[in-house]
Amino acid sequence: MRYQLFYWPQIQGRGEFVRLALEDAGAAYDDVARAKAGMDKMVAMMNGGSEKRPPFAPPFLKAGKLVIAQTADILFYLGPRLKLAPREEAGRLWLHQLQLTVTDFVKEIHDTHHPIAGSLYYEDQKPEAKKYAHYFLKDRAPKYLGYFESVLQKSGGPNVLGRKFSYVDLSLFQLVEGLRYTFPSAMKRIEKKVPRVVALRDKVAARPRIKAYLASERRLAFNESGIFRHYPELDE
Amino acid sequence: MRYQLFYWPQIQGRGEFVRLALEDAGAAYDDVARAKAGMDKMVAMMNGGSEKRPPFAPPFLKAGKLVIAQTADILFYLGPRLKLAPREEAGRLWLHQLQLTVTDFVKEIHDTHHPIAGSLYYEDQKPEAKKYAHYFLKDRAPKYLGYFESVLQKSGGPNVLGRKFSYVDLSLFQLVEGLRYTFPSAMKRIEKKVPRVVALRDKVAARPRIKAYLASERRLAFNESGIFRHYPELDE
Fold it and tell me: Which of A168, A187, B166, B231 is the most buried (most CB within 10 A)?
């Protein structure tokens, strides 16, 4: 099966969680919107004219006739197929539950620079962003990362499932990478409390296919159009 | 199978999306935290001492040995078992994708009164809430409801899957009910553009088990501790 991934071509964003799974598995896929005329194809599908089951927003994945949107739903589908999730129901539901908590975390990370409205520029909501980021760094980031730390502790590590590697481990790598880019000072402090999460990040970074991917042109750089944005005034 | 639902006992909140599915199916369940000593049980599970796979937050469902958190994950599990979802993979993934869009919408509804931090009172973030609610009512609520309207149009209605009823239809009912309570004026205007969503809401309200549930003491009233809060100053 050759997959087609549809996502905004200039940012890592939510699409990156899917890309990391495809890359780690060595799966065959096209990053459609980054190829010629790809944006037109993506926009046509978003407008949903011919889709009986239209996606609400990117990313979405085309797998044969199936079109799946919502990052966590895509990973739920891909997991066992890419050998990044168990096949049994209890294990799949547990991984998915963790991925949905990643989803919630990502939304709050996004809102550190867009607390009022996605349709406004960051520059139009800077005082609110400063307030939001303060509570995010004080309460929310430590809470989420502390939760994943406790999951790794209970699993026995080094992965969220214990010995077995999964797509959630890839997502935790991406969260740490993104948060280090976004809040370098605050992360230095927060990371001290979550050594298992940091060790997992290092382990993922050293996986041969991930290492090759990160060094390739396929990995976009973090930037100030994405979810993880470095605005020094928001760091603490 | 007798299910145990764990959720905050004073609000509908996210737990209500699960309750509606259990009630519509006539399933046997305990609303644990609303019974004597139930809160202690819930808090113990949240603190996760004995849980190998601890939930991040309520709601969570105990089904035999399985503990599942995240509203959409719970509904994914319950769907086919309550005959509120098809058994085939493509249909389940599609329903789940829609439910995850409901989840996103619910988070934005919550943020209309808590745009800065969940740890602060509404009274401490009123000016920001006013701004957030303005863009929410102008852009986001019409966009989400318009999306579900287009899904109903494409399915042929009256349900999101067409003839077959599902848990997503119950969630759309809850969204309309909650938004009417929260923003009565704005909803009068917005509803004019989404007649299929409104017709679905009416159809769900007339289902015998839902009608009985809504009239029972098991259905909590909307209030200003929940997700759907009526603050007249935020309505437009």
Answer: A168
Smallest CA-to-CA distance from A90 within B147, B232, B167, B76 is with B76
Query: At A88, is the pLDDT very low, low, confident or very high (cuts 50, 70, 90)?
Result: very high
The minimum CA-CA distance between B135 and chain A, rounded to whole Å, is 6
Residue type, B13: G
Burial zone of B51 (CB within 10 Å; 0-12 exposed, 13-18 middle, 19+ buried): middle
Confidence (pTM): 0.98
Q: Which residues of chain B have pLDDT under 70?
A: none
- A97 closest CB neighbour out of B68, B100, B135: B68
Instruction: Tell me the three-class secondary structure of chain A, residue by residue.
Output: CCEEEECCCCCCCCHHHHHHHHHHHCCCEEEHHHCCCHHHHHHHHHHCCCCCCCCCCCCEEEECCEEEECHHHHHHHHHHHCCCCCCCHHHHHHHHHHHHHHHHHHHHHHHCCCCCCCCCCHHHCHHHHHHHHHHHHHHHHHHHHHHHHHHHHHHCCCECCECCCCHHHHHHHHHHHHHHHHCHHHHHHHHCCCHHHHHHHHHHHCCHHHHHHHCCCCCCCCCCCCCCCCCHHHCC
Residue A212 CA, chain-centre distance (Å), reads 19
Which H/E stretch holds residue B66?
strand B66-69
Its ipTM equals 0.98
- In this structure, are residues B174 and B204 in contact, taking their beta carbons and an 8 Å threshold? no
Q: Chain-wide mean pLDDT for chain B?
A: 97
Whole-number Å distance between alpha carbons of B160 and B175: 14
Over residues A173-208, the pLDDT tens digits come to: 999 999 999 999 999 999 999 999 999 999 999 999
Are the Cβ atoms of A150 and B54 closer than 8 angstroms? yes
Using CA coordinates, name the residue in chain B closest to A155.
Answer: B52
Q: According to the model, what pLDDT value does residue B225 have?
A: 97
Phi and psi (nearest 5°) for B44? Answer: -60, -40
**Residue B162 Rama label (left phi>0; alpha psi -120 to 50; beta):** left
- Residue to substitute from B17, B56, B126, interface A, most A β-carbons within 10 A: B56
Rounded (10°) CA dihedral A125, A128, A133, A138:
180
Q: Which residues pair with A69 in a beta bridge?
A: A60
Q: What residues have CB less than 8 Å from A45, skipping those under 6 apart?
A: A6, A51, A54, A55, A60, A67
Q: Report how far apart, in Å, the C-alpha atoms of A106 and of each of A51, A111, A131, B42, B126 are.
A: 28, 9, 18, 26, 25
Distance from C-alpha of B19 to C-alpha of B143, rounded to nearest angstrom: 26
